[in-house]
Amino acid sequence: MSAAPAVDALRLLVVDDEPTQREMLQLLLERAGFKVTLAVDGKDALNVLERQSFHLVLSDQRMPGIDGLELLVKARELRPDQPFVLMTAYGSVESAVAAMKRGAADYLTKPFTKDELMLVLERVLRQRRLQAEVEELRNQLSDRSRMSGLIGVSAPMRAVFERIERVASTDASVLVTGESGTGKELVARRLHHSSRRAQGPLVVLNCAALSETLLESNLFGHVKGAFTDAREDRPGAFVQADGGTLFLDEVGEMSPSCQAKLLRVLEYGEVTPVGGSQPRRVSVRLVAATNRDLAREVEEQRFRLDLYYRLRGIEILVPPLRERSDDIPVLAEFFLRRAAESKEKAVSGFAPEVLDLFCRAPWPGNVRELRHTVEAMVTMSNGETLTVDDIPVSMRRSLEASAPPHQSSLPGGDDHADSAERAEIVKVLQRTCYPATGRWNIARAARELGMSRKTLEYKIKKVYALPAP
After folding, report:
1. DSSP letters of 79-93?
2. Strand partners, 15
3. Counting beta carbons within 10 angstroms of the beta carbon of residue 139, is it exposed (0 to 12), middle (13 to 18) or buried (19 or more)?
4. Nearest-angstrom CA–CA distance, 252 and 255
5. What is the rounded CA–CA span in Å between residue 194 and residue 139?
6. Element (H or E) spanning 393, and its range?
7. Which residues share a beta bridge with 200?
8. Residue 47 or residue 274, greater confidence
9. CA-CA distance, 349 to 359, in Å (whole number)?
10. What is the pLDDT of the chain when averaged over all its residues?
11. Burial level of 181, CB count in 10 A (0-12/13-18/19+)?
12. Strand 11-15, strand 35-39: pairing
């Protein structure tokens, strides 16, 4: 039997003093695609853990000498982040609570089925992967704190990062395009801090926030008396950014007059303040951003063709959040941790149905909308886990309205289940069930359906209410 892709090459340490149980677990887990190491007792397990790391430790609780709870404590002293699952024939609420308090990731009571075992292992390993991704991103933010949180683990965002790294060392102008809220300014900041101009200034100017006169004054500077309120000479953004980077956000909002003056600066490398006559040489790397289609703006004669060509020498397209759904859980976790810290709230995570909703929502406001939603939820929360009840009513209605029409995105809503999807789920569940028992193999069915296990479980229980076999 081929190894399951979801667990390929994952290393497990199985600890059990009963040879039959040990060998049965080894056979079952290796058939599922895990790489299994065996330990005959707690002491043997500690010796193994001193030499090798594992993605997960699966240990019996009742063992002679060092029992499972003591092994858990000692193992976490050796490897504090080690995921640990305890199993015992003497299950009780008290022992489960004791295991969790000592840091166990989950708990299994014998006898358990293969499906129950795989469910626990997949849940723990998935959480471990998410924690590793968040930690990696936290390290990136620590190493590049000035980059202010440009986050992504998806293929589209990896392509953005690779393009940034390729062009950062040049002085060529860059045009950053994408919908509002996708993080275009963060791309500009990362470009600057990855460039040889990183020690120079980064000046940010929003072209849409100023009138034509104020924009020209802020961009090129002015001399005393240039206009009514010009009471003294003032350097513009180009002079302030000399030796560094100038980021012009919403460059498509510029007036034709301002476009012409910007083009001259780019062509000659010198800037003349409003009302002045003496140009000044500047060395500035220009990064511009827009959510408009500048090619269409050129066709409709609202944007200069020559300036468009100067700006788009290098173009970086930031994908909308709906095209990088793999990033949503990581972004949500990042925003949760940041909001919880700033608001001093003891919030640690999301309920599964919240992440399921987040991953299906189209997010027209993109990352900015997701951040505001999570921050509002943290503000509203009273518990450690954020649920759909923590979503403010207005935001909840918006998410509900934007969900696919064939199903409700929130518990308690009207479930318009798509019959074709329901039929496909039932068919795959029946085809992939365990022959001996007829029980569903949820992990395999989820892989065939191209969705996460949690999403499939949510659809089975909450959306379609399918009865278990």
Report:
1. -TT--EEEEESS--H
2. 39, 59
3. exposed
4. 9
5. 16
6. helix 393-402
7. none
8. 47
9. 15
10. 82
11. buried
12. parallel
Cα-to-chain-centroid distance, residue 466: 31
Tokens 């005393």 map to which residue?
Answer: 224
H-run or E-run covering 15: strand 11-15
Distance CA 376, CA 394 (A): 11
User: Is the distance from CB of 440 to CB of 469 less than 8 angstroms?
Assistant: yes
Token pair listed for 185 = 């300014």
Prediction pTM value = 0.58
Q: Which of 67-81, 279-293, 349-363, 450-464 has the lowest mean pLDDT?
A: 450-464
Which pair of structure tokens corresponds to residue 306? 């020559």
CA distance 63 to 17: 6
For residues 426 and 78, give the distance between their C-alpha atoms in angstroms, rounded to a whole number.
45
pLDDT classification of 145: cutoffs 50, 70, 90: very low
Q: Which residues, 6+ apart, have CB-to-CB distance to 416 below 8 Å?
A: 405, 406, 407, 408
Nearest one of 63, 62, 7, 16 to 35, comparing CA atoms: 7
User: Tokens 């090798």 — which residue?
Assistant: 52
Separation of alpha carbons 73 and 360, rounded Å: 39
Give the pair of three-digit tokens for residue 226: 């240039």
Element (H, E) at 337: helix 328-343
Gyration radius of the chain over CA positions: 29
278-294, pLDDT tens digit by residue?
Answer: 889 999 999 999 999 99
Q: Other CB atoms closer than 10 Å to residue 43's CB: what's the count?
A: 15
Q: Which of 219, 206, 209 is nearest to 284 (CA)?
A: 219
Please state, in angstroms and rounded to a whole number, the distance separating the CA atoms of residues 351 and 370: 16
* Separation between Cα atoms, residue 294 and residue 159, nearest integer Å: 22
Q: How confident is the model at residue 424 (pLDDT cuts 50, 70, 90)?
A: confident
